[in-house]
Specification:
This protein is α+β, with helices and mostly antiparallel strands. It is built from five helices and four strands, in the order E-H-E-E-H-E-H-H-H. It has a four-stranded antiparallel β-sheet with strand order 2-3-1-4, with helices on both faces.
Length: 147
């Protein structure tokens, strides 16, 4: 028998201290670069988006992937890209990330949510968005880690 799997994750993380470093004029290039990193690591980028202070990734993983290793490489490589290509040497990602499992039937709704980040954040902050996501997933958290 073969191995069958569907491992989809919605991952979000912010810039250091939620500084609005990511400018609209190069944000799309960063999202493409993030997708390239995910792809190079053998995972499948399904949708990537975000605004000035955070990003969202919807990715498909293989059973061999270890999320912490993948995220370390995504953040490290993308930080280097921003430093070198965009010439923003102060750019940094915040430590940590939030990851949520996504069922295959829900992937299109999550992809739509990621695509509408700009509109969504006209009304809600990333902090409020993250709290809502954590609460909906039943994840306990300490608010000191949300600053």
């Amino acid at each position: 028998m073969s191995t069958f799997y569907s491992i989809n994750l919605h991952i979000t993380f912010s810039t250091k201290n939620r500084k609005p470093w990511m400018r609209e004029e190069w944000n799309g290039r960063l999202h493409e670069y993030l997708g390239g990193i995910v792809n190079r690591l053998g995972a499948k980028p399904l949708k990537i988006g975000g605004v000035e202070d955070h990003v969202h990734l919807l990715i498909g993983l293989k059973p061999v992937h270890q999320l912490s290793d993948l995220m370390r490489e995504v953040k490290k490589s993308s930080s280097s890209w921003v430093h070198q290509t965009i010439d923003c040497p102060t750019f940094q990602w915040q430590e940590g990330y939030a990851a949520f499992s996504v069922s295959p039937p829900s992937c299109s709704a999550v992809a739509g949510y990621i695509a509408n980040q700009r509109e969504h954040h006209r009304k809600n902050s990333f902090r409020d968005e993250l709290i809502s996501m954590l609460n909906n997933a039943g994840i306990n958290y300490d608010t000191k880690y949300l600053e």
